[in-house]
Amino acid sequence: MYSFNYVRPSSVAEAVKALNGGNFLSGGMTLLPSLKMRLARPETLVDLAGIAELTGITIEGDRLCIGAMTRHSDVASSADIQRVLPALAELAGGIGDPLVRNRGTIGGSIANSDPSADYPAAAVALDATIVTDRREIPASSFFTGLFTTALQAGELVTRIKFPMIKRAAYAKFPSPASRYAMVGVMVVDTGKGVRVAVTGAGPCVFRQEAFEKALDQNFAPQAIDGIVVSAEGLNQDLFGTPEYRANLISVMTRRAVAAVQARR
To answer: Which of 159, 188, 168 is nearest to 58 (CA)?
Structure first.
């Protein structure tokens, strides 16, 4: 580690003012290890943990609203989320390990755009809205690449708004080392169409449109049989080749569809 300025504001306005080219600190699941390895060297850390307005789970009309500093464990255990959007509670309950779930935050995960994070698949498949201190950004245009988003310099995610859709499910094949998603697939049946979003397989979350078209015609696991998933551009590491991940996309999609079918 090295010396830096540490600020703990009590409001969003104070946090944005204090940033001054530094980094926001939410759960610290990515930032703190990066600091230890000197992969990140901000002059200022703005700790968001003291900002009450960034936490909480509310239902506003037909939207489920989750504060950016809400912990994964709180999303998983929320009775409201389990009732109106159970797939999201289940996703949160499978993130990492107990330490990660009790420290990591939904806003930090989404703002970081880690290629293996779980929440981006939910945000894109559910057509969520990312709310910042400046504007609202559709999830479909929020995630732009490897660890990159549509956020501008100094812009802060304050909450995420999800439509309340009960017929959805998330299926993940976790890395045996980190429990991050080697491939995770969120399938959503909106009643007007099917949305399929994939995380872990590529540099950034993406839609699987060929599966969506097939599932629109026949919402069943076998509907995607015969659709070949290209391995081009997919991730490769010690745990899996691009071809392995391409196959996992099909496998996890079938499992997610089956889980959606089971949800009445």
So the answer is: 159
